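Page 37, continued from 36.
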């Protein structure tokens, strides 16, 4: 409807690295040491596997991928007209392996500005990225029924993964990974981004040096 406007949308960047991964890059995520949970003593059935390192991009010397992610993160902030001068950096990065039947639980990423995922090896029905809006219902505590689901009344967005696809979103965004119903292992790279610099302004008493 022409008189309806999206007043407070959540900005999501979707792009693609637009190249084949090198053999070195492929070996890095295929041969990585994947675990079931953060705690060695805990086993969670059917959840995705991931590398426990929090700096896999540096450890595996994946400089080109790191530069690509940061360049798109800068584009993301620029498109939002962010005027703060920040030097962005990837503070955490880890590989994720989604085996057939596995899924990722709903969560967000504290102590981070921008979070995202870069898909490394995907298949049809290997598990969409599910993004959640802040308020689960359009009218708060009032639950109404909707006919056609669209951008106005939906509380989730489902993103089918593709090889090379990059998705960036605010780190506060709740998200999960749908179950991998394919017969193949899906691989991806997750990461968090922070910035060094000065945010806010002195005249509004919000200035903060990071």
């Amino acid at each position: 409807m022409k008189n309806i406007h999206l007043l407070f949308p959540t900005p999501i960047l979707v792009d693609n690295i637009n190249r084949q991964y090198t053999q070195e890059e492929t070996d890095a995520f295929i041969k990585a040491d994947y675990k079931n949970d953060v705690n060695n003593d805990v086993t969670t059935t059917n959840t995705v596997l991931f590398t426990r390192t929090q700096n896999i991009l540096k450890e595996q010397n994946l400089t080109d991928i790191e530069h690509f992610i940061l360049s798109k993160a800068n584009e993301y902030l620029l498109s939002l007209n962010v005027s703060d001068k920040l030097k962005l950096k990837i503070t955490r990065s880890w590989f994720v392996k989604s085996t057939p039947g596995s899924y990722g639980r709903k969560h967000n990423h504290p102590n981070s500005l921008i979070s995202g995922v870069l898909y490394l090896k995907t298949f049809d029905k290997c598990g969409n990225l599910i993004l959640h809006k802040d308020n689960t219902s359009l009218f708060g505590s009032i639950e109404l029924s909707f006919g056609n689901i669209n951008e106005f009344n939906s509380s989730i967005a489902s993103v089918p993964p593709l090889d090379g696809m990059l998705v960036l979103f605010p780190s506060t965004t709740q998200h999960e990974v749908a179950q991998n119903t394919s017969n193949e292992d899906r691989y991806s790279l997750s990461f968090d981004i922070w910035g060094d610099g000065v945010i806010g302004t002195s005249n509004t008493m919000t200035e903060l040096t990071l």
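The longest helix spans residues 63-79. Flag for discussion at group meeting. The mean pLDDT is 92.
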